[in-house]
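User: Run a structure prediction on this.
Assistant: Running it now.
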Amino acid sequence: MKTQPGIHTVLPYPRSRLLMVDGGQMGLQKHTVHALVEFDITQAQEIIHQLKAQTGEALSFSAFILACLGRAIDLDKQMHAYRNGRHQLVIFDEVDVNMLFEVEVEGKKTIRPHILRGVNKKSIREIHAEIRAFQNQHASSQESRFIDWFVRLPGFARRLFLWYLFKNPQMIKDYYGTVLVTSIGMFGTGSGWGIPVPNHSLQLTLGGIGEKPGVVDHRIEVRRYLSVTISFDHDVIDGAPAARFTQRFKELVESGYGLRQE
């Protein structure tokens, strides 16, 4: 670090940010549509709190969201389809979610991805256990080792690899997952949406959680709402299927899908 008093501070640019730079350049080439929605998570949070009081186990809210997402995509798998050339779509049976986590590397906070495979075939508790395992051992994960190697490549080599990857649906699944989920709400309080620059056909950005009046059984109550940005690649997903998916996903979250079975 170099410092000139009263002028500015110069820091080395983190290598890990190069992955975001490359991904952003690729994402700007897509025709993305963003849906800004709110989900009433009051009931789901109450069930999670009740489970903790009864069993002592604190289920991950992120695991719950991923279980709902997997189920919603299961009902229309074209939501995570990818183009294979100009005339084919590849539609995967398994929903592989690439989720971004904030972790500590060498004493500094950074973002690391982890791909949770087949979330549409897993329970909330199974997803929860996998998330906790990654958070505890992220340094040795396959994703972390790949990033540490990848960001050391020259810029042209990284971009060539990504160009080739995004023309091969199976490689997208293997290296990037079929859906991406990121959360910005964990870093603050109150409502708010994030607008990403996605590379996936479907990306979920979890925003803030805020309290506001809601109508329940014709009564006004204070409810807790999660701000959610759902981003679609319009080259793959039309507006009507996207709207139906959003409604299904909302209903699953608001009903506490899967929680009462845990």
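The mean pLDDT is 87.
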